[in-house]
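Ticket 4471: requesting a sanity check on a complex prediction with zinc ion. Repro inputs:
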Amino acid sequence: MTAPRAAVTTSRSHLPLRPLWLCRACGAPWPCAPAKLALVREYAGSHVTLCLYLSSLLQDAATDLHLLDPHGAPGPGQLYDRFIGWAAHPRPTTG
Ligand SMILES: [Zn+2]
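Returned structure tokens:
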């Protein structure tokens, strides 16, 4: 009996590769969808703490990405949407 492959790959592996801020597991701009799910689970009941954590990461990412490519780095609005926007306005739970 073998475990399904999806069960072996945990969301913990979806961590940021700094200073590029790409996901180590899937290569998407971090936080990728699995990383967001993991963060929501990890900070369940601590929404403010999650937003504070994400804002500190946003500052780190803004610095790193600007140093890597001063002219091509994402702007403040893009970084806000990417790091905080998705978590700042949680959808009401259904069911
Ligand atoms: Zn990922």
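Notes from triage: The pocket of zinc ion is lined by residues 14, 23, 25-26, 28, 32, 34-35 (CB under 6 Å). Leaving this open until the requester confirms.
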